[in-house]
Amino acid sequence: MTRLEAYAARRTREALAAVIEPFSTDIEQHTRALQPIGNAWTEARFDGPFYLSPPRSTDLPAASLVFVQSRDGDTVADNPSTLGGGDADKHLVYEGLSRVAADGVLSGASTIRGTELVLSIWHPELVALRAALGLPRHPVQIVATSRGLRLDEGLMFNEPALSVTLIATRPGASAMREGLAARPWITAIVIDHEHDLPRAFSELAQRGIRRVSCIGGRTLAGYLLDAGLIQDLYLTTSARSAGEPNTPFYSKDLRRETVVRKHGTGVDAGVVFEHFVIA
To answer: What confidence tens digit (pLDDT) does each residue in 208-234 have?
Structure first.
């Protein structure tokens, strides 16, 4: 068994063991042409379809931002599960519906550095939904870095079965030159500065990546929102105070339209999920 197979088996067991309490819908309203996705299993637990915005153009992928925050609006924690989103959020939304239709999942370097993370989906019902959408088993792993990464660390950088794209500044790409040369399954998009992310997204679209699920951290989220690259915001608010104080996912005003608002039930009572379309 390969490292990836062992990792996938463990994550699948975790997803199957999770108690996924159903959400209950408070608001569902939209005037835009959104794409509903789901199957009988997800719709029973999410209380309806999950919505995606279509790409605005052929030049850029449709991009969503996925965040969990404490009830005080804080998002930074050494272990994100301590923020209190719950199993329904983790296994149905965060590692499920928000990325099941994505061609790629984008993370900042600090989110994955030193971990064995693979940015994919694990519950068999969601794996089946992704297959029904005609997509490969795993999304492209996309990591943005300004300083470079230790490519000898981390599962995703050392598993040829995964497709990996690094968005790196020139100093970061230079620091990874030898590691990249030894790993032909990893490609790099080199940019001059973090504010050059629109050009990186344009290149992702040219490579056939039409939908990206972005999971942060908050520094990367800020660049993406400032650049106008995010169309959908999927925000889960927990019922507990947790995380580092004064760490909102975005510190500026954000024009957004509510599409869906749901609340958790059972062990997830007090959790609120919201889907916003960014103006």
So the answer is: 999 999 998 899 999 999 999 999 999
Asked whether 155 and 10 are in contact (CB, 8 A), the reply is: no
Name residues whose C-beta falls within 8 Å of residue 206's C-beta, 6 or more positions apart in sequence.
Answer: none
Among residues 24, 26, 66, 18, which one has the least CA distance to residue 45? 24
Residue 79, pLDDT above cutoff 90:
no
Beta bridge partners of residue 168, listed in sequence order: 145, 190
- Taken in order of first residue, the domains within the chain and their CATH numbers are 3-278 (3.40.430.10)
Asked if residue 259 lies in contact with residue 34, where contact means CB atoms within 8 angstroms, the answer is: yes
Whether the Cβ atoms of residue 159 and residue 5 lie closer than 8 Å to each other: no
Which residues, 6 or more positions from 79, have their beta carbon under 8 angstroms from its beta carbon?
Answer: none
User: Residue 202 has what DSSP assignment?
Assistant: H
CA distances from 203 to 59, 197, 251 (A): 8, 10, 28
Q: What angle (nearest 5°) sits at the alpha carbon of residue 260, between those of residues 256 and 263?
A: 120
Taking the C-alpha atoms of residue 16 and residue 91, their distance in angstroms, rounded to an integer, is: 9
Q: How far apart are CA 53 and CA 62, in angstroms?
A: 7
- Residue 133's DSSP bridge partners are none
d(CA 48, CA 260): 10
- Its pTM stands at 0.95
With tokens 């990249």, the residue in question is: 180
Measured CA to CA in angstroms, residue 82 lies from 101, 222, 239 at distances of 27, 22, 11
* pLDDT tens profile 177-196: 999 999 999 999 999 988 89
20 backbone φψ class: left, alpha, beta (φ>0; ψ -120 to 50)? beta
